Amino acid sequence: MDTLKKITGACVLLSVGFNAVCSAQVAPNWDSMAAHYQVPDWFLDGKIGVWTHWGVPSATDENRPNDGSHYGRRMYGPNEGETGGQLKMTQDLTDFHTKRYGPPSEFGYEDLVPLFKGENWDPEGLVEFFKENGAHFVMPVACHHDNFDMYDSSHPWNSVDMGPHRDTLREWKEAAYKHGLKFGVSTHLYWSPRFFKTGRKYYEAGTLEGQLINMDFDPKGYVSQDSWNEHWYARCWEIIEKYDPDLFNNDSPYPSQKTGKNLGLKLFSDYLNRDLEENGKQDVVLSFKDGRADRRAFTYNLERGSSADIQPEPWMWATDVSGGWFYRKGATNRMSIPVMIGNGIDAISKNGVVMMNVALRGDGTLPENQAAYLTAFGDVLKINGEGIYGSRPWNIYGEGPLKMKGGRQGENHRAFSQEDIRFTTKDGNLYAFVLAQPTEDIVIKTLATGGVLEKEIRKVTLMGSNEKIKWKRSKDGLTISLPETLPDQPVAGFKLILE
Asked: Which contiguous run of DSSP H or E holds residue 46?
């Protein structure tokens, strides 16, 4: 593939597999992106999204011993340097694969692709279910680390030519738009050259199977390999051009400024410029997981983590309700339903947006235990959505003994108590969410007279109830008498109408 060729300062023409972006407003650098990037209201107001991991790993034996998202990496045997629990997981899966399907030398990852049929997949029915339970956007995985595209791709290993023989991105988007949801995509492609590292001994470059295993790229030095970085850009840009997503999530590293010809920031700024040129304003969301980057320039994907306080820039709490990202029958979510709901409201109180991953079976159906998480959150949103959708963080996020750890991979699994309160605000009203069903009078110390809340409280109501709520405010806090009847839910939401 030819490299980039600069034509003028205002227009960069990208050769075969690339796109021309002219009269660019956003330059491919952090300062320009930070100066121009704006999170659209639909994302800030919508608050709830559903992420879907579905692909070849979904169709492997559901009784496999461990995480299916890395089946292709582990099935070929241990990687150099693996020790402890990771080494055991890999060896267990290699042994399982050999017993179940045959030695990797005889039954490789490519032989799993025909097992992925999606014969019962109903994207319209799934999107309708997501919407019924509060989702305002959906974000399917376009390509995971296994290098298999879930769309009509120029890459030969794709879901149109193989597997289910369907353009799943196109069908997800059509279903999303039919039901009034925004449509996002997630790509995990950049890890791909190293993913099948231990399987390379079974393949040859120049073959169809070799393309799946990425035999054309260096498994160690791919980050500095121009051919790989250009290949990554072309594959990602193809998704943007063909499917015009409202949200683009890059769930892996990207070509750096030093070793990758800056094609990462080039892709991201081109995505924003494309939207500006088509719509006259930015109406898309760009997200990824680089915690070291300038968060004014994109929407930070805080996967399986939490925020200790209100963040100045909107962010995404991305979590998984399946227990393993891709479907596996024995996977369990260590986060209970009440805790997941509390974590979600905590994120929203801190300027976050919730993105819950579900892992479909290989046939395309949603497992009942995962559906239960969405239904439970949906029930809460049906009653308390007034204080969630369209809301913004208040002066402080809340109070209580459960303190969240800031950062990725520190997701809370502890139960909340009725002392854990979270706030949002909308239309001049203050909303207080008690993150466990209260069993006695509720005392909110933050709302004491002479404190953070300078306005007077005119009325307190319990969302989802017509009961007259008794309350009093003093120097010790706002005390809300325990209502006679509470919604049968893990949280209780109160609306405070202010003078």
From this structure: helix 41-46
